[in-house]
Amino acid sequence: MFAYPQQAAFGRKVPKTKIYQHASPTKRVRDLFVSQIDRIIWDYKLAPETINLPARPGVAEIQIFTIHLRSEALHEDVLRCIDKSVIHPIFFRLRHGDRIRHAAAHKRPSDSDASKCVVGDYYFTDWTGADSTESKPALPVALDLTSLYAAMLRQLFPHPARDGESLHAQVERLAQLRQKQREAHKIEAALRREKQFNRKVELNTCLRDLQQAIDELKSAHF
User: Fold this and answer.
1) Domain boundaries of the chain, sorted by first residue
2) Of the candidates 68, 173, 175, the residue with the CA atom closest to the CA atom of residue 119
């Protein structure tokens, strides 16, 4: 996504066992780690001492992890497990061969326990060739790590922020949008199976209402 500054380079391998210790994954998730991930590298640490931006409550550091994959498949439960093992926000660089994509979820400290975090929906870029550092943009201009985090995360979102919309409000709106889209897909599937005319009319009415809600949630205006 960005040309990260060299002074923020960290370059340490993250043992899977360390993640297991902090996140306590199920056997299914551990099996996914083994089958899908070759290695995990903690590539960059964006922190006050590395990029000279002050920390703010909720965002003391931003981590950049590169995950080398055995194939292009990666279950989101694996990313969620890694996220839950590290309190700071993480941006993932997913690499397979000479292809790369980026992923992240909105992450914040839990209201009930500041030592734990709440991880939202994941957003991904498309797969592309692994470009050289020179072809990537610099980090967004920001006054602190909180505003930097928001600017970085918004690069992954499928729809832009509305005027004056906070990151939290945008995340909530996009979560509602995903939920409405899932409901619409279910109704579309039901419509294809339905034989009764009256029931089809009801389903089409629900689908129109959902599509209107979807369009409103996608809109850049309130």
Assistant:
1) 6-156, 170-218
2) 175
